[in-house]
Amino acid sequence: MKRKVELVVVSDLHLGTYGCRASELLKYLDSIEPKTLVLNGDIIDMWQFKKSYFPESHHKVLKKLSNFISEGTEVIYITGNHDELLRKFTDFQLKDFSLVNKVVLELDGKKAWIFHGDVFDASIQHSKWLARLGGWGYDTLIRINTVTNWALVKMGREKYSLAKKIKSSVKNAVKYITDFEITASNLAIENGYDYVICGHIHQPQKREVVTKNGSTLYLNSGDWIESLSALEYDLGEWKLFLYDTMQDKIQEEETPTSLTDFDYRDFMQDMLS
After folding, report:
1. Vertex 168: Cα angle to 47 and 218 (nearest 5)
2. What is the DSSP letter of 53?
C-alpha cells in the first residue's frame, strides 16, 4: 500500500546519464502518494544528454512523474544548472504542474524556501565551461566506480565512493567556493524563513542552523546517483529518506509504472508547449 505524504522533495536525478539510479528511484516513487511533489533541479541532465542513451528505466521515471500530474498531485519543477535551458520558460503553470526557479511554501504556518542552490556555486556562475567539463568527468567517474564496487562486492569488501572522496578534496582545495550550507541558512534567517531546502551539492542533510540573528532548519534532498535520498514532510515533521537504509518502507507495486503509449519527447514537448 502506498504511503501518503504531504510533501516530497527530490533533486539531482540526472536522467539521461549513466550514473542515474532510475530503477531505485522508480521503486521509491511507486511507493508514495504525495499531495505535493517538488522536483528541485537537475532532473533531466541537459549537459550530458545524448539521444543514444535514455534507457527504459529513465523513460519510466518520466512516465511516473506524468502520472502524478494526471492523478492530482501538485508537481513543482524547480530548475537547476543541469536543466538551466528550462529557465527561459519559468513561471509557467498548467493545472497541477508549474515550472519555477524557486518557490516559497507555507507548511503549518511556517515558511519553506526551496531552490536548487547553484546560485551559490562560484565555479558554476563564473566558469560554466569548467563546470560542464566537471559534469562529464563526474559521469565518467560514476561509471568507473560502478565497475570498481562490483569487483569489491565480489571480493567481500565494502563499496567505496570515489566521487565523494574526490569531491571532498576538490572542495577543500578550491577556496573561492563558499560554504554552501551556511550561506543558504544565513540568507534564510535574514529573510525570515523557517526552512531552507536545496539540492545541487549531492549531500543529503537535515540540521538546524542557529546564529545571533535567529535559526532555520537547513535541508538538502541529496541525489539519485549516490545518496539515493529524498525529503518528506508530513504531520508537521521533516524526514530524510535514505533508500539504502529504508528499503523496508518500499513495497513493490502490483502494477508498476509501464511505458504504454509513452514517449519522453512528447512529455518534454507537453511541458514546454
Report:
1. 80
2. B
Per residue in 24-49, pLDDT (tens digit) is: 999 999 999 999 999 999 999 887 66
Reference 112, options 194, 186, 41; nearest CA is 194
Q: Of 111, 115, 48, which is closest to residue 79 (Cα–Cα)?
A: 115
* Identity of the amino acid at 163: A
Integer-rounded Cα Rg, in Å, for the chain is: 18
Residue entry with cell 519553506:
112
For residue 9, give the C-alpha cell: 522533495
pLDDT digits (tens, 9 = 90+) for 155-168: 777 666 655 565 55
As a whole number of angstroms, the distance between CA 273 and CA 268 comes to 9
Taking Cα atoms as reference points, which of 38, 44, 43 lies closest to residue 73?
38
SS3 163: helix
